[in-house]
Amino acid sequence: MLLRTNTSSIRPVDGHLAALAGERVVCSEFKYRRGTEVFGEGEEAEYVYQIISGAVRTYKLLADGRRQINSFHLPGDMFGLENGATHRFTAEAVIETRVRITRRRGLLETMQSRQSGASSFLGLVTRNLQHAENHMLLLGRKTALERVAAFLLELDERLGHPTILVLPMSRRDIADYLGLTLETVSRACSILRDQKMLRFDGATQRQIVLLDRKGLAEYDA
Amino acid sequence: MLLRTNTSSIRPVDGHLAALAGERVVCSEFKYRRGTEVFGEGEEAEYVYQIISGAVRTYKLLADGRRQINSFHLPGDMFGLENGATHRFTAEAVIETRVRITRRRGLLETMQSRQSGASSFLGLVTRNLQHAENHMLLLGRKTALERVAAFLLELDERLGHPTILVLPMSRRDIADYLGLTLETVSRACSILRDQKMLRFDGATQRQIVLLDRKGLAEYDA
DNA sequence: GAGCGGATTTGATCTGCAGCAACTAAGGTG
DNA sequence: CACCTTAGTTGCTGCAGATCAAATCCGCTC
Fold this sequence. Notes:
2 copies of one chain form a homodimer.
Chain A: E1 7-9, H1 16-21, E2 28-32, E3 37-39, E4 47-53, E5 56-61, E6 67-73, E7 78-79, E8 90-93, E9 97-103, H2 104-113, H3 115-141, H4 144-158, E10 165-166, H5 171-178, H6 182-194, E11 198-200, E12 207-210, H7 213-219
Antiparallel strand pairs in A: 1-2, 2-9, 3-8, 4-7, 4-9, 5-6, 5-8, 10-12, 11-12
Helix pairs in contact in A: 2-3, 4-6, 4-7, 5-6
Chain A binds a DNA duplex through residues 143-144, 170-172, 180-184, 186-187, 189-190, 203-206.
């Protein structure tokens, strides 16, 4: 829900959302504290979001609490744009996150009347689908080590191969993304560390230096 | 490749493909024998397909042969319509399958110039995405019994709750769709049979009568 | 900077599913 | 119909990863 967050500013900005619609669109900025819900599964899809800073997880739950994270969204990424009227999963801020928000209605109408808008919407959905197809292969057929290696390489790629990979999410989040337990993720990281594929930077376990991307890619079957 | 199949007829027909484009489109009918490839991963996406009869599986492979089936396509379903230029997975006929084929190029151009076409293309991609999201939850977090129950209910639903559910695919196909082994699928079916959730009809193991859809739905967490 | 609570690692044990093997059943062929 | 090939079931054993438990570490707050 929007009201639980403090509005940092409400002003028109342009960015990817505007580019998607092919023209300037009125947006507002919002901030979500770590762990807070951006929207819930089944809620009406009223807004569309683009991350300015921070990270968001989207997930589905089973009745007994088992959780599957579909995807993590990082700065620049858009999420929450549904074709139907309601959200098909829940979105939460992994860490303190600033987002740019715009109303779905205006955006979709604009897109329907403009060529480039419709096709970039389509491109967005297609990229999501492509990611999901790859992730099904990972979840259905890869081993724990292969999954963790693939995850690190995916994040490394999306962040533009930084020297230090700063993970915004916990081991439990990674586990729920990879269909594993947090202990198994932790053990896999330790194995990769022992094999000099990576090293932890500084005190934290959340800052990782990838020492052998090629070796990791071989793990990622 | 198309040339390996025998062309049953080349004539304009209308159907869902035409409806998608918002007008009549020239299509041909093709037939694929059981186990033959419709198109391969990485191939240029030249055609779009709609199943008249039979069934098709689409899948990805890992280097060592592990296979993950994304989805099964049944009569009426369309597949092979990519946004990019190449197919992201392989498609094979599960059993003898007749399809309606049209060139992607003409279809996409038609759609770009027509409102309804673009939005039904979007609807198609969105449905695929939605299916993938649900399947990730299954692959990441459900038990073997839950997966098999979910599979049977999915097929039952898609075939319109027939009295006898005729499975076109083998236990191995089901296993590769559910991220299990064929033995585990077989055992799960036996358990559900012993629990009177289902029964095999006639001689075959491919004809199943669902005796307790509600009970199955409870397994499907 | 001392103390607290959550995050992570690591170890020990357990278990659901995989892997292997043998058997049975079913469809296809001459 | 007899044969053969492929699909499916079932039993047995093994293992990857889950679960349980403990110790350690880290960031946070006061």
